[in-house]
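Provenance

Sequences were taken from public entries as deposited. Structures were produced by running a predictor on each sequence independently, with no templates supplied. The record for Inosine-uridine preferring nucleoside hydrolase from Staphylococcus gallinarum is shown for reference.
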Amino acid sequence: MHTKILLKSYINATEKITLLFTGPLTDLAKALTVDPTITEHIERLVWMGGTFLSKGNVEEPEHDGTAEWNAFWDPEAVKTVFDTDIKIDMVALESTNQVPLTWDIRQAWANERQYTGVDFLGVSYAAVPPLTHFQTNSTYFSMGCLNYCLYGMPRPRETKDSHGISIYKRTKPRSNIYR
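Predicted structure for Inosine-uridine preferring nucleoside hydrolase:
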């Protein structure tokens, strides 16, 4: 079902589109398998997934703990998408650690409840208890925020690593957006 909707959206687009994926790349990979020419309609993909660290966020039996969840969930889809010529802006797991969901942020949202979107965020996260079952003083992270910011901004200063993966930096030389 999702594959058909994606294919129709891509093919009917009057100009190239930017995709934002905050989960596994399964639906995009399926759409590419059905019609590889859809890449002609895609400007770029902003994807929250993968990691450059030796420690990921997957704690599953018989797994070594090195994978990031969105890549772990469907590694074949990641390969399918990365094997295309789509420009990929990868927001890696370690970048999300720079955006902790602190009590101060929750309080700021509570103070801005007059805005529907902020109210929704605040109410949603109000029900989330402190995260203490994995490690003491651990916290949640606002993972999707980086993706939404990158999605909405023009491409910043860009370099490529040895694998051809884009690494972006803000206008200040010391400030990495991700990696």
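Residues 168-179 have pLDDT under 50 and may be disordered.
The two ends are 34 Å apart (CA to CA).
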